Amino acid sequence: MSTNTGMGACCMSGTIHSHAEPTGTTTTIGDLPTYVAEPESKDHTKTIVFLTDIFGWEFRNVRLLADLYAKQGFYVLVPDILSSDPIDPSFLQNVEPKLKDKQTAGLIDTVKNTALVGATLGAWLPKHREAVTLPIIEKYMDTVRGQQGVKRIGVVGFCFGGRYAILMAHGKADAAYACHPSLVGIPGDFDNVTKPLSLAVGTEDSLLDMKSVDQIKDILEKKSNVPTEVVVYKDQIHGFALRGDYSSDEDKKAQDDALKQGVTWFNQHLSHLSNTLSLYRTVKRLGIPDSQILLLLPDDMACNPRNAFPGTVYSNADRHMDLYGENVEVDYRGYEVTVENFIRLLTDRWEEGVPSSKRLMTDEGSNILIYMTGHGGNEFLKFQDSEEISSWDLADAFSQMREKKRYNEMLFMIDTCQANTLYRQFYADGMIATGSSEEDESSYSHHADNDVGVAVIDRWTYYVLQFLENEVTSLQSEKTLGDLFDSYDVEKIHSRPGVRWDLFPGGEEAGRNRRVVDFFGNVQGVEVQDQNSKDSLREDLESLMRLVKDYEDFAAAQEKNKTMMHDAMSQRGIVQKLQVQQQNQQKAVGSMRLKKENLSVRQITGVALLAGLGGLWYLGSKVVI
């Protein structure tokens, strides 16, 4: 059974904001007049379309809110979806009281206002029914998506426009955010949601009661493959996210939180793939081979049909380097990238038969770098937008690694919103942790490619990589983690990175002095414990050389035997057959020679071969990306 919520006096409740003046411009896009709020960068990649309430595109409040989204890096468009026929905002200011006054109004005033609103909306709504409004919005969305540089579009809707934001989540938009929507159909409007959808509703919303909200939650929770959320704001009435009373601290906080909800939602649904591939390229440049890197990529963006440059991934706007080019070895991709697999990878709790290439083959002598990026929040990081790993999950996994002697020292790096909360619960020794942003802070993109249509790298990762590329040019670099962390610039990153030292032996002083290449470079060595180990190594090498000599003697004897037999065999007419046998034998077996000038190389190879037996070698760095 389908139910519909209505529209009434609450749709005209609230206040007109006078604390600032709109700073955007007006233009025409397609056939619709449009208010445009641009970010400081003038970048159009992260585009958001506002679908307005009944007061239309010229309403001061909606323009001021568009300006606030633009300050967060979004290109915001507010089209006239009401065909120059909005309800006059003066009706809101003169007839409808403030929200608090409305709640305490007497019966006579309530009946009078309700009758006036009913008369006004009764004549207005038929002119803006779905059959009229939906085609206008869909045509506008197609026009915006066809503009140069626009490949991904978010939609924010308020009240009347809130329902159409939900409808855009059926496929027209890449992500949607509906604030106190009205006239929604339950379950119809939500059954067909296929794109990320966030809702903001108030507990005192007379047009969308908590019973209806619970129904919506039940429907959306069943969509395991679509990111959705419903955030309920206590004691807030219909219209709070756009028309809240700024003179009330409670109402102003609710409106600010609703803004933060939208900004976070749209930031979360941008790709972080190039962050990971950029770091992957850097550690390979510093000598860590693929055999010591585990690369986990949940999305195949390179092969996505919407990629304007198929088979490629870039982290720079001029596309001078393809991060997805040659020699990229992905160990886990797509459906393999799950929380369970990641925990198993760290703790080595695998079933029999899992190949070593998919396992973290480390020991108590290994230094490990773990870099994670994606959509996150307070003490969690999303995997595939369908499950989450928490700070406690990571803390327990690292503790198990410590107990099982799977690492010597670990550097943990995280780039996501509220990143520093992800290492809050860590308690295993031997760790240094750093992240891009504090609690309640977003992690922002650095720049975008208008042709690709998305932001291509995040700010914190960009400046970390800039330091590594410019300052750590070889394995002989003496740059330290202290140098790296001191390079963090809040003005450039737009958030406050953090560092945690207390779990590292010697604390901050010792951690700051650790060389960057101890984690980012392939610094391998032979660990000789005592004289007995040296004697054992010498014996191993001597045994190897004796084996080689025995083989050469055997090969020489075979050659002598064949020469002695040649005359007798030729007399019997089978020399040709012997020649064929000789050719086959030469292909199968060749002589092995060990020259003294190559002795140092062979010594290293010998130790590598014996590593599993003598425990003399350890990995300089093991990277999980």
Summed up, the domain count is 3
Give the oligomer, counting copies of the same chain as homo and different chains as hetero.
Answer: single chain
CATH superfamily of the largest domain: Alpha/Beta hydrolase fold, catalytic domain
Low-confidence residue ranges = 6-14, 93-97, 302-324, 449-455, 524-529, 574-622
The CATH class assignment of the largest domain is Alpha Beta
Put the structure in a nutshell.
The chain is α/β, with parallel strands linked by helices and 625 residues long.
Would you kindly provide a written description of the structure presented here, covering whatever features stand out?
The protein is α/β, with parallel strands linked by helices and 625 residues long. The protein folds into 3 domains: 3-268, Rossmann fold (3-Layer(aba) Sandwich), CATH 3.40.50; 273-523, Rossmann fold (3-Layer(aba) Sandwich), CATH 3.40.50.1460; 539-579 and 593-624, no CATH class. It has 22 helices and 25 strands. Helix 8 links the parallel strand 9 (197-202) and strand 10. The longest helix has 41 residues, at 531-571. Residues 6-14, 93-97, 302-324, 449-455, 524-529 and 574-622 have low confidence and may be disordered.
